[in-house]
Amino acid sequence: MLLSALLWWPILGGVVMLLMGERSMGRPVAVAVAALELVLALLLVAGFEPGRSGYQFMEHIGWLPMLHADYVLGVDGLAVAMIFLTSLITLPALLCGWDAITQRRNQYMAAFLMMTGIMNGVFAALDGLLFYLLWEATLLPMFMIVGIWGGPRRVYATLKFFLFTFLGSVLMLVAVAYLRLNTGSFDLMAWQEAALTRQQQIWIFLAFLAAFAVKIPMIPVHTWLPDAHVEAPTGGSVILAAIMLKLGGYGLVRWALPVAPAGAAAMAEAVIVLSLLAIVYVGFVALMQLDMKKLVAYSSIAHMGFVTLGLFLPFVLARGADPLAQSTVAVQGAMVQMISHGFISAALFLCVGVLYDRLHTREIAAYGGVVNAMPVFGALFVFFAMANCGLPGTSGFVGELLVILGAMGANTGIAALAALTLILGASYSLWLVKRVVFGALPDGHPVAGLVDINRREAALLGVMGVAVLVVGLWPQPLIHLMSGTAQQLVLTAQMVRG
Amino acid sequence: MMLSLVPLLPLLAAIVAGTVGLKRPALAHTVTSGAVGFAMVAALIVSARVIGGEPMQVSWYDWAFIQGYTMHVGLWLDGLSALMISVVTFVSFLVHIYAIGYMKGDPGYGRFFAYISFFTFGMLMLVLADGFVQLFFGWEAVGLASYLLIGFWYTRPSATAAGLKAFLVNRVGDMGFLLGIAMLFTYAGSLRYSEVFARAAMLAETSVGFWGMHGSVLTLSCLLLFVGAMGKSAQLPLQVWLPDSMEGPTPISALIHAATMVTAGIFMVARLSPLFELSPVALTVVLLIGTLTAFLMGLVGVVQTDIKRVIAYSTLSQLGYMTAALGASAYSVAIFHLATHAFFKALLFLAAGSVIMAMHHEQDMRRMGGLRRLMPITFWTSLCGALALIGFPGFSGFFSKDAILEAVAESHLPGAGFAWLLLLLSVFVTGLYTFRLIFMVFFGELRQQDPGKDHHEHGDHGIHHHAPSESPMVVWLPLVVLAIPSVLAGFLLWRPLGLGEWLRGVVVTHEGSEHAQGAVAFALHGLWSPAIYLAMAGAAAAWYAYVANPSLPERLRQRMMGVWRILINQYGFEALYSRYATAAARGLGLVLWRVVDAGVVDGLVVGGTVGTMGRMGRLLKRLQSGYLYHYAFAMIVAVVLLVTWLDWGGR
Prior knowledge:
The complex is a heterodimer of chains A (498) and B (651). Chain A is mainly alpha-helical and 498 residues long. Chain A has 22 helices and 2 strands. Chain A has a domain of 229 residues. In chain A, 74% of the residues lie in helices and 3% in strands. In chain A, a hairpin with a 4-residue loop joins strand 1 and strand 2. The longest helix of chain A has 37 residues. The two termini of chain A are 39 Å apart. By secondary structure, chain B is mainly α. In chain B, helix 3 packs parallel to helix 16, helix 5 runs antiparallel to helix 6 and helix 16 runs antiparallel to helix 19. The longest helix of chain B is centred in the last third of the chain and has 34 residues. About 3% of the residues of chain B have low confidence. The chains are: A mainly alpha (498), B mainly alpha (651). At the A-B interface, helix 4, helix 5, helix 6, helix 7 and helix 12 of A face strand 1, helix 5, helix 6, helix 27 and helix 28 of B.
């Protein structure tokens, strides 16, 4: 029942918030709902046994018998980690709009709560139809968050977002329907066991990939993300970067790779090329951004390149002392990167939000010397920028290290291109720091009047900072949690490679 | 237990100073100096136990454990790391004391102490690592500290630019370093030194292709790892960041950019000597890069006028000597020079800081002069450092530098003869730039009020009228303390390091080579080598040009304008990176963004549907007027429609 609670409790909370209208109690109620959700997520983490194979906390209820679609929930290590991340990130996403959102405040909070429940459902769903419905349902609150509380070009951004995701999702729907017709069921296990030809698997994989690639986002379907981020309110950006992008990577691990492994193997090299493009090409693009949010958004795309790279390395990794173990290292890296990026990107968007709330611009050129006026904020900004460029001791390092270590087992060139992130990531992150945080502050400059972060903002960024440090200094618990998922994926890849 | 205290005390002190100590200067410097002082005592005690005895190991925790691969955090103390922690904590402690005087009144006082203590922690973790992951952690931690300290005065654009440059150039090296680690991980299947070393011979026999070339895994790994060393130890062509790092406060120039962090690359190659030793190709590259750096950067030092920059180029040159020694397989000798250099170079930097303080933050040597009488302690200690640097007989640098020259002379690598000659010439250059500094700063007349020159940007107006005087005791005491090992370390460490007794079994050492003799015998023998005469000739040339005939340098400069330009521009490296490479990166970024991203992807993929988007936009606008209920309603309708359709389709 825990998974159902994680799925429905925040949705219920959101509905109650909507029924409340615009009464003043909205904000504390929303935070209370989110806090309880986090407690539920902690119970899930505590109850999960990482060593056991298969899914845990299974729930199986007949739903649409005519369709052979059931309400099936269950989690493995990766899903537990993602649910925990989602439930945790919801709090800062709500709290950062505490003062900044002045219109339809309760609806705003309700949208976020519903979003949390739906995304937790996506991570727990083991039935194809349920997964697809929840997957699509995540879009609605996000469209509203951008479309209602967004910036001046929100209509353009929402439409672009819609266009990309819709096209991708339609193809996935075709794949879902095809699999249902072929196996007579929506059950993930049945899909995995179905005897599909290589050709069938390639098409199914490509259809899934269309939906997931948009979300991750992968080149060349990434251009919606910077626009969506720029127009989204801070909380929207936080959820978008920290969780929504991970839906794509998660979808690959849970659905595309296990259901169509031969298709994934056939396409692995193409995906790896696109991943490297994301790391290198987008790294250069990020360098030249004039808007802080766009810079962080492009940096997200580059970091997601490590996720897709790590996930597909098991299909090509072939040399060295122990390719199988090295594949596991790469997959672990990709999954740790998903969690780590959740914290770091959320923190960076929160930082941008802190500045935007004060000066109402995100233009890099409008800032400079912020640390003079806001020393505590300046220190935190530098810290998260360092995490963004993968400094050891922060969570950003773990994923990058493991994926680069794994990549060397495939090819020196792949590893070298991936390792370019050491230079590119540092370039765009620290150049941003130099232009925004450091520098002299002439009298009368608008930045001189800024006040340092208040307790609420300090608490939000502080929690993110602790998370970044804990995962960076001791990733072993997280790695252990997700070890079953990683091994399963490597085995799947091994089987199709023969 | 006591070993764990060595890195942990500075870390805790850094946390205290960086939080509650920011507004309490006395607390900040007491806690950090005290912690580093205790760490030094602990380091000396545990080192005494380890040197000549069994190595010591402390296991902290498993950082990550994946499918039999363990990435471990812990401390490993053997002769090499014992020497390193002793030198690091000793120099760091003195720099802490010195900074109490030097940084007095700076608005970032507490922050400064937090940074240098954190740096000390990072460096200790680096040298105490027992595997590659922790080595990389320390490697990057000192990089972070260096970045923060170079950009310490963050309101100065030149300082933040120098910090960024240092970090990025180091990251170029780190990229190679990480790839080297990944290569070893792939083929040796481990990230622990001992396990990788055990498989070194196997790695040397495994062949690997890379972009059309073929070589052994070992050679490729060593070359990649050495790229990392080139970044941290500022070897050609990644040397450009070190001169600019002089933007930071002088105490950190002494600690980080002379005595410790920049030696990380040297330490790393020595630590990995069981790997490098099996790859003559890699060793040749190391030898030649080191030699070229030693010679070319020494020459640049001759034309500098900023006192700190002269010493910075000297550091580059001396790091080149150490690298050359590594290339000649004289790992222990490289560490020997690392140790003596740490003492005398820290001394020279701190003495320069003392001069800069007395001159009210004036760093241009052309406006100094005659300080010998005004600052006697600084002068005499500087002279000790200078004599040690040029390798005057009996002083510490004499022993370590002569040992390097001998090792290179004995090397059979291709190019070793050329290297030996160039290193010998560099000895003359060293004498020249070192005594040029001594004569310009301490001899002649004070030229401070040079008319026609505007005041230095950092100049404190109004205080300029005071004549320079000797610095306070917290500043000169560290100079005196450092002067002692600058003179004696060569003699004392000759047997343990020059002959490699302390490092036996740790680095690859060559038993029974012909210089296996006592320090006195070696010193006497050294009197017959051309090196000391070249060094003294360099010093004499400096005396002739800057004391006897002070108009000569300017005339020479006019006469040889072309050569001067090449040197002052660092052979064009500076322009290549800061002008062309960065411009190319920005241009590429701009083109990819504006043309490919916005033009091709958005233009073709999205643009084709602009009409649709416009129509959808109008629809959405109408929808937007509603409340959330409407959306929720629409969502439910959509779901119902979808399910119905599927139900129908499924039948």
